[in-house]
Amino acid sequence: MTAPTIRLMRAEDRLAAIEICAQANPWQRLGYTTEDWDRIFAPVPQNRDTYVIEADARVAGLAILRQKFLIGDYLELLGIAEWAKGRGLGSRLLSHIESLVFARTKNLFACVSEFNERAREFYRQKGYREIGPIPDLLVLGATEILLRKTVGPAREKSQ
After folding, report:
1. % of residues, the chain, pLDDT over 70
2. What are residue 59's phi and psi, to 5 degrees?
3. pTM of this prediction?
């Protein structure tokens, strides 16, 4: 087993990224299909920073980051392949993203589906706070929960 590595996504990672997302239960439950992911990863998400984590010489997970969202950045997607879950790769990838984000801004936002208790608990353990619900954001009848992790206010209080 090789040590996991994190790097920017390349075009040749596209099929692995599509497979990870298409097999993820939250996205399946929300009705996302392989065709949806095929459009998103054409060949990589545009105007986003997309990272993969490799383990055992395979793409084991990915993260899509949008810079300059509200007063911070927005983690659009964090996904780990089914075969790689339970190995701490999601935590490692999230820590990497946080180190990049908090070097330039004070806030990192994310959303999780209200029904996705596993993801909600994961983010709670990592220091994220639930800010509030956003009904019908992705699909009609489903609610996303906006999350925030911060290292401080955007600026100090004025005198």
Report:
1. 98
2. -70, 120
3. 0.92
